[in-house]
Design brief:
Largest sheet of chain A: 7 strands, parallel
GO molecular function, one term (chains A, B): methyltransferase activity
Mean pLDDT of chain A: 95
Strand order of the largest sheet of chain A: 6-18-17-14-12-10-9
CATH superfamily of the domain at 90-401 and 487-497 in chain A: Trimethylamine methyltransferase-like
Radius of gyration of chain A: 24 Å
Distance between the termini of chain A: 66 Å
Protein name (chains A, B): Methyltransferase
CATH architecture of the domain at 90-401 and 487-497 in chain A: Alpha-Beta Barrel
Oligomer: homodimer
Keywords (chains A, B): Methyltransferase, Transferase
Shape of chain A: globular
CATH class of the domain at 90-401 and 487-497 in chain A: Alpha Beta
Family (chains A, B): Belongs to the trimethylamine methyltransferase family.
Number of strands of chain A: 20
Helix content of chain A: 40-55%
Number of helices of chain A: 19
Structural class of chain A: alpha/beta
EC number (chains A, B): 2.1.1.-
CATH topology of the domain at 90-401 and 487-497 in chain A: TIM Barrel
Strand content of chain A: 5-15%
Low-confidence stretches of chain A: 1-17
């Protein structure tokens, strides 16, 4: 079969089509299922049984007191949740809320049917082809923010590389400051104890210029709550639930259930544990403040049975996504899922794994797909090149959210009439009218033929990705208002830093 | 968050779990849509209008005569299909048939709801890390067959690298012989004119030991029919339709509609053209022999608007898959789709592109997903390493076809009771009972931690893939019966070769 490669040079002069805007996405597909409705009900009931009979270990006395006051049976550090408490929590938990950003164009309604992507979160290390692999630092943390701000398909900030060069009691200042200095998307703050959380909230209020009332009645920043599976919520996480809920800031509940390790080896068993922990955390949030914005969620995958290493983007990962979606719909809440990869490098393995989690998130109706780009080594490292190669997949999947018209003009009977058998459609009016809007425009994919590609150095996608992120960072200009936002928090940071900052909770 | 990497060495001694069997797959998900039912009807009606008013150019007089006899208006080389003819063809075209292989375990029922994968098809070149990129030869053709036979997730043979070292008039003997000598999956033959087709059929009859009746009443081999878009069926393809249909052998109709080049720039327009060409070819097949097994199909993607190069695994590729699935369901026929990549190497780009087409095929309910593994450079090259890195994705997606149980035993309340908060499930009875069957076992993915991976040479997936295909080929043993099948065709091949073979049709 004859195929055209590298032809039509005349078109190249017209330049690439404008980048598409992926900032507002709705799921285009019907969510899929792995369980029958009866099985979903059975898993939900089993999770309620876990909460009532086996209980959760909650390491924060204040959280145990809130739950005891709401009717839970508390014995030592164990909390046993009655079904009525959980049901009450699910009645008050909102189905939809606004995730606010400094730039209203980046504010979003978080609800079932909406689709958000965020970059890698929680990586201690960073890696790129220029500086190599190293502990995360403020430079790599900031670089990742620039990349997150640059791509419209990334809908909120996430902490892609931990700035380990900033002392721990001061790190939260640097992280919030960098987010405000770099961009205007929705903010992320870690839950590492009340002192840091209060500082974070104060910086958000000051930086955004919000009154207490404006702050408390809307979500302006979010945090991720990882339970310590199985059946434990540690003190910083419990504190985060209580404090974020009371302040009306968004909680993203995320049991990290690896089937065969910290969770049962079966998908149904691991999801029962995830569901119990998620429901327990949601209940704590709602008892702390009814109506607090709290996202259901989970990050489930399996361990490799040969090595015991966590695996990502596996069939089990996708099955847990699909089952999580069913459980989220069962309780009616929006929910977070995750992609990500175990690969050590931005190669075919890493792409295959991430694409599995991205498609799994799409097909399970996830509201938010975390770790969509840049997550190497099961999250131990943020990869600059990986961020670029992953975002190609994220953008292409996001492109499917745009409606496709089958209307008469799109069918284009005139164009079909215009072209003789064996001819081509390059010059038809139908083509010329649509040329500059048609088709996804590649981010890092190289579509040149083998000869041209080899002559140009035979670079693989990861190698080309270096130039892509370098170009974005070199040309990066913060959006309007960043300097002003930072100016509003500088004095607070200086004062607090002079006082020694805020140590994290043990 | 603490994560376990590289732990649990005791488990490694138990060896990998047994490879899963993916030889019988049914679609686990509901097919998705991009068009409304009205739009699907409009595209179908537009395609009928194309066939009736614009017509197809059919370059084979015999085919034009068949269509004229069935009531088509024929003018010079143009054939205008009445709607009644197309409707009659859709009445006689079977919805379900058996694709037979020498080994009944590899015979399959081809029908909506079934899911088949095949490897790369139609690549003139081959490439691997040892021999480099070169014109396809009989060795690479045979190597590809061995890989196809090895993996249970590949359900039929496809011609992955053209054996260009075999003279054209003898090539079809070498190709059928190599398939019979290598494995026992369903056979593929090219449609390159009546002389070669008759030889192919004779080899199939002899090799399988079939009576004429057994051969003619069941499908024992298949071919792919590419129309010359737009609106043309060349002589070899038309001959293939007529001859395969009359012999009751499976036709896989595949217009290759690149939106913006040989097809309209819109998804709806390109699909209208694809649908018209596919319906025209199906009609010719049914007029040649009512009830002949013919698969609807298409291979649609777009050209890159910068270079004019074909792009694969793009959003438009997936949208055309989804629309094709809707059109196939509209006419009630099983259908073929395709994955594939434009990348020049088995890198993140190649994996991302192929995963798009694999998931697109899954979500559009394709009966057969062609080019699932090894298709580099938009099909110009079969890549050995690419075959391995792609098949990881194919196997993981195929794994989703297995039902997931949410029954009581799987929920495992006992296991949940067994493990204290913060503990682990490694040693629970629930885990031990399921350990050797649990989880997908990686083909080429490396799940070791960064340190171990770096120490072992920091190899990416493509590099590791070399050892994987080398290992498979080194240990390859043909299944029982191959020698006998070949013995039954040797004399025929010798006689025909001595007579000069059969030249392909011009």
């Amino acid at each position: 079969m004859a195929r055209r490669h590298g032809g039509r040079q005349g078109r190249a002069e017209a330049g690439p089509p404008p980048a598409k805007d992926y900032s507002r996405l709705r799921h285009p597909f019907a969510p899929q299922r792995i369980f029958s409705d009866d099985e979903v009900t059975a898993i939900h009931q089993a999770a309620l049984e876990v909460l009532q009979e086996l209980g959760l270990k909650v390491l924060l006395p204040e959280a145990r007191q809130i739950l005891a006051d709401a009717g839970a049976r508390v014995s030592d550090e164990m909390v046993y949740f009655g079904r009525d408490m959980v049901e009450e929590a699910l009645r008050t938990a909102p189905r939809s809320w606004r995730v606010n950003a400094r730039n209203p164009d980046h504010s979003h309604v978080y609800e079932p049917g909406a689709l958000f992507f965020s970059g890698s979160g929680g990586c201690p290390n960073a890696s790129d082809a220029v500086r190599g692999r190293r502990p995360g630092d403020l430079e790599s943390y900031t670089d990742a923010l620039k990349l997150q701000q640059h791509f419209s398909v990334i809908h909120k900030f996430s902490p892609s590389a931990e700035p380990q060069d900033v002392p721990v009691p001061l790190r939260h200042y640097a992280m919030i400051r960098a987010q405000m200095a770099t961009g205007d998307k929705a903010l992320f703050g870690y839950a590492r104890g009340r002192a840091q959380i209060e500082d974070t909230f104060e910086m958000v209020r000051l930086g955004m210029g919000l009154s207490d009332e404006e702050f408390l009645n809307n979500s302006w920043c979010s945090t991720v709550i990882n339970t310590n599976s199985p059946r434990m919520i540690d003190a910083p996480m419990a504190q985060g639930i209580v404090d974020f809920a009371r302040a009306g800031q968004m909680l993203i509940i995320t049991p990290f259930c690896l089937a065969g390790a910290m969770a049962p080896i079966t998908v149904a068993g691991a999801l029962t544990l995830q569901h119990a922990e998620s429901l327990g955390a949601i209940t704590l949030a709602q008892m702390a403040r009814p109506g607090a914005p709290v996202s259901y969620g989970g990050f489930g995958s399996n361990v490799d049975m040969k090595s015991g290493s966590p695996a990502f983007g596996t069939p089990e990962h996708v099955k847990m996504q699909l089952g999580s979606g069913q459980l989220a719909r069962h309780i009616g809440l929006p929910w977070r899922s995750a992609a990500g990869s175990a690969s050590n490098v931005a190669d075919a393995q890493g792409a295959t794994e991430n694409m599995m989690g991205l498609w799994g998130g799409m097909m399970s109706g996830a509201t938010l797909i975390v770790h969509s780009g840049g997550w190497l080594e099961g999250g131990l490292t943020f990869g600059y090149e990986k961020m670029i190669t992953d975002l190609e997949g994220v953008q292409m999947i996001a492109d499917l959210c745009a409606p496709t018209s089958g209307a008469e003009a799109e069918i284009g009977m005139d164009a079909l009439r215009d072209v003789e058998p064996g001819g081509h459609f390059f010059a038809t009016q139908h083509t010329m009218e649509r040329y500059d809007q048609a088709f996804y425009s590649p981010l890092v994919a190289d579509l040149s033929n083998f000869g041209s590609w080899e002559e140009a150095g035979a670079e693989d996608a990861a190698t080309r990705a270096t130039r892509v992120w370098q170009g974005i960072l070199a040309e990066y200009t913060p959006p309007p208002g960043c300097d002003e936002a930072v100016a509003r928090i500088e004095q607070f940071i200086a004062d607090r830093s002079a006082a020694g900052g805020a140590p994290p909770m043990e």
